[in-house]
Structures are given as C-alpha cells and as structure tokens.
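User: Let's play a game. I give you a shape written as tokens, and you guess the letters that built it. Ready? Here's round one.
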C-alpha cells in the first residue's frame, strides 16, 4: 500500500512502450464502487474473490505492465498464475509508508492502529511477495523515476 505501484507501473509501461493495467482499477470499474466500499459492504473474503478473478482475467488478456493489489498474493492459485511472469516486488519500510500515505483510514485494512497493522500485514505477506517475485526493488526515499530505472535494471530490460 502506497509503495508507488501505479506511478511506477505507468512509467515502466511508458519506458517499455507497452500498455499499463491495474487490477484494483479493474475491480472498481466492474463494481462501480471503491475498494473500501466493497470491504465495508461485503467484507474482505468477497473482495478477495473479486481480486482473484480480476488477476486471472488480466493475466489472460494483458501483455503489458500489470499492477496487482497488495493482497493478491494471499491466494495460492494467484501465486501459481504468477509463476513464469516477471514479477517485481516493490518494497518499503513503515516509516516511508507513513510519509507517503499517512496510513490513513481510507485504507480498509489499516483503520485501527495503522502502523501496527501495516507491520503485521507486511510480516504476513513479505514471504509471499518474495516467493512470486523475480526481483525486489526498494522504493524508500527514491523518486518514481529512480524506482522505474531500478526495475528496468533488475529485469535487465532496455528502455525504448
């Protein structure tokens, strides 16, 4: 959350001359409401089912840069679908998350004690991110352009 996946994803797609897609945006467009509203109205399990379907569809339809929501890797089938793709884990520490997002309540999983919950989410997910990623790029204290270049370098891709 707040790691810059949308900004970096768009820059990366631009550098590579390919399309950009975000599964969170796909869910919002299909459902006609925000992710926070889905969480409140239907709960996390319902959202995760929508997310799983959105990732499956996007992987089948899209050949460019694809940004996934932070919880997408919680699903074992989604992790299996990501195998063989060039997945990059954009990381950051909690102090950076505070600077970037303020860890505000607009993020449904961080509504109470955001710093503690962010740390707990990362502890629960980090190994899953590392499991699916072919590269990890730290984003702390770096501009989106610097992160994008690091992703290109990590994947050994040339800019167009």
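Assistant: Ready! My guess for every position:
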């Amino acid at each position: 959350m707040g790691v810059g996946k949308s900004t970096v994803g768009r820059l990366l797609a631009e550098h590579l001359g390919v399309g950009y897609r975000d599964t969170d945006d796909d869910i919002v467009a299909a459902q006609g409401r925000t992710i926070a509203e889905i969480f409140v109205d239907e709960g996390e399990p319902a959202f995760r089912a929508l997310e799983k379907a959105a990732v499956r569809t996007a992987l089948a339809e899209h050949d460019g840069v694809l940004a996934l929501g932070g919880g997408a890797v919680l699903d074992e089938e989604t992790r299996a679908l990501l195998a063989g793709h060039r997945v990059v884990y954009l990381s950051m520490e909690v102090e950076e998350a505070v600077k970037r997002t303020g860890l505000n309540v607009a993020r449904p999983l961080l509504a109470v004690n955001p710093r503690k919950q962010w740390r707990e989410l990362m502890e629960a997910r980090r190994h899953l991110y590392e499991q699916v990623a072919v590269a990890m790029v730290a984003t702390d204290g770096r501009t989106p352009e610097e992160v994008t270049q690091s992703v290109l370098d990590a994947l050994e891709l040339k800019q167009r």
